[in-house]
């Protein structure tokens, strides 16, 4: 039994919260993180993937009571006593229970999350690929240096965290190249800062899509259409059936006066001035 009280890292390295001693597990394989009152699981770019209820994750997914997670040879079950378990086929094998006591019935939102491990001075020890995705050319690297450094504004925020004696760690929010980036401190261990980064497209945000006359759920579906996700992937992200996604697409197309997703994306870009 592992009770979730904060971000939970899973992987082959011994300093993960749930270490998996198997060559099929990546060093940093996956993370479970809390957003609001909900818990999500995200693959951290592992080679062999994360399987939830028999399906490989292609993006972050909200967890529900009874969800079965497979990473390498390890089977995990997410338990939330406040929720009823969904119906799905069982996965046989040794189970570790991940228990959390709070549940929210609020709407799902678009989530992408990546892990960065850095020093107090902003040197990136793990997560170069994610850092380049977040910050692009604003990353700094001295000639001959082994690692990149975070942009100055992020390093300044890190210094403030290091000097904070009240254990209050406000996230850093910044906008860059049409995206909103939110960095939060997951933990600090042995002078290493574990940062969780979330990114949201400002061009296709839920609020902007709703301004086109879409409902909140239609806007969520359209957001992921604009992000290049296909219908089965969107169904997995929003934890709904493929039929439900198809029905939302029909309503979206009707409201945008188009007959396919490519024309819908073009219509959205034109109306939002993207």
TrEMBL record:
Residues 8-57 form the FHA domain. Gene3D superfamilies: 2.60.200.20, Winged helix-like DNA-binding domain superfamily/Winged helix DNA-binding domain. The keyword Transmembrane does not apply. Pfam families: FHA (PF00498), GerE (PF00196). CDD domains: FHA, LuxR_C_like. The lineage of its organism: Bacteria, Pseudomonadati, Verrucomicrobiota, Verrucomicrobiia, Verrucomicrobiales. This is FHA domain-containing protein. Keywords: DNA-binding, Transcription, Transcription regulation. The keyword Transit peptide does not apply. Residues 205-272 form the HTH luxR-type domain.
């Amino acid at each position: 039994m592992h009770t979730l009280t904060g971000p939970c890292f899973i992987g082959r390295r011994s300093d993960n919260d749930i270490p998996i001693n198997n060559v099929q597990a990546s060093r940093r394989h996956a993370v479970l993180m809390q957003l609001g009152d909900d818990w999500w699981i995200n693959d951290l770019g592992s080679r062999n993937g994360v399987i939830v209820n028999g399906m490989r994750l292609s993006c972050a997914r909200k967890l529900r009571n009874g969800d079965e997670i497979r990473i390498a040879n390890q089977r995990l079950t997410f338990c939330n006593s406040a929720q009823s378990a969904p119906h799905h086929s069982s996965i046989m094998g040794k189970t570790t229970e991940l228990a959390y006591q709070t549940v929210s019935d609020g709407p799902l939102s678009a989530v992408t999350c990546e892990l960065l491990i850095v020093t107090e001075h902003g040197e990136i020890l793990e997560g170069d690929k994610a850092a380049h995705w977040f910050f692009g050319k604003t990353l700094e690297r001295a000639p001959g240096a082994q690692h990149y450094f975070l942009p100055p504004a992020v390093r300044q925020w890190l210094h403030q965290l290091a000097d904070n004696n009240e254990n209050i760690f406000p996230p850093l929010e910044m906008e860059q190249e049409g995206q909103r980036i939110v960095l939060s401190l997951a933990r600090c261990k042995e002078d290493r800062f574990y940062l969780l980064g979330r990114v949201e497209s400002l061009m296709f945000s839920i609020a902007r899509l709703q301004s086109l006359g879409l409902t909140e759920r239609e806007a969520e579906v359209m957001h992921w259409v604009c992000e290049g996700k296909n219908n089965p992937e969107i169904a997995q992200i929003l934890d709904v059936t493929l039929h439900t996604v198809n029905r939302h697409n029909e309503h979206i197309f009707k409201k945008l006066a188009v007959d396919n997703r490519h024309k819908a994306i073009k219509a959205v870009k034109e109306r939002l001035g993207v």
